[in-house]
């Protein structure tokens, strides 16, 4: 069994996660938008629940990173296209 100090630390960390910004108003509200999550416990949940939350959150973060990367790539391609259309490359060479 976990020592009392460790358990207290895990409870504190769980409450920080519940209030985490960057997922709308807070993570605990955001995670409820997924059908697999019918409620968010205020006390430290079981490992299965935590693993599900980690999987959903990680999937979302990976998706956002891919979207951001794609947007940067498209922006770069657009700037190259505009430079080419404006004759920038001919002036440099």
Largest sheet: none
Overall shape? elongated
Helix fraction, binned, reads 55-70%
- Judged by helices, strands and strand pairing, the structural class is mainly alpha
Q: Averaging pLDDT over every residue, what do you get?
A: 88
List the domain count as a whole number: 1
Number of strands: 0
Describe the structure.
The chain is an all-alpha fold and 93 residues long. The longest helix has 39 residues, at 47-85. The mean pLDDT is 88. The termini are far apart. It contains 4 helices and no strands. The chain has one domain (4-92). The chain is elongated, with a radius of gyration of 22 Å. It has helices at 4-18, 27-31, 47-85, 88-92.
Which labels suit this protein?
93 residues; elongated; mainly alpha
């Amino acid at each position: 069994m976990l020592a009392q100090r460790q358990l207290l630390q895990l409870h504190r960390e769980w409450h920080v996660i519940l209030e985490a910004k960057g997922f709308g108003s807070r993570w605990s509200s955001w995670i409820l938008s997924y059908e697999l999550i019918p409620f968010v416990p205020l006390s430290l949940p079981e490992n299965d629940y935590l693993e599900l939350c980690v999987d959903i959150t990680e999937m979302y973060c990976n998706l956002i990173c891919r979207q951001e990367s794609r947007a940067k790539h498209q922006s770069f391609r657009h700037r190259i296209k505009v430079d080419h259309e404006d004759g920038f490359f001919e002036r440099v060479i």
